[in-house]
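User: I'm preparing a small set of examples for a lab meeting where we compare how different chains pack in three dimensions. I only have the primary sequence for this one, and I'd like the structure in token form so I can line it up with the others. Please keep the answer compact; I'll paste it straight into my notes.
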Amino acid sequence: VQFVESGGGSVQPGGSLTLSCLTSGFDFSDFGMAWFRQVPGKEREFVASAAWYNGLTDYAPSVKDRFIISRDFRKKTLTLQMKDLQPDDTAVYYCNKHPPDPTWGPGTQVTVSS
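Assistant: Understood. Below is the structure token output for the 114-residue chain.
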């Protein structure tokens, strides 16, 4: 199982970023997928998920209406479109199965500051 996140960067408040996660080592079509994020010194937290069977999505209240999760079954890629980013969104973002696999990727850093 492998997850490789990309697309992070530094933006000002109100800015946008799109994160991507390339997966391998498992059948992407058979699992729910999710994005998580972690700030140093805090536990990793759930951000958004997409179910495998019906595409149903779910979001943490803090990102609802600002973030959109999507999956490309052909490319086995998970995407997170983020808009109106705020300083509280600063974190390392990870993708994983949902519920998560014990294996985690390196993550991608998102920094929001003026």
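A couple of notes for your slides: The chain has no helices and ten strands. The mean pLDDT is 96.

User: Perfect, thanks.
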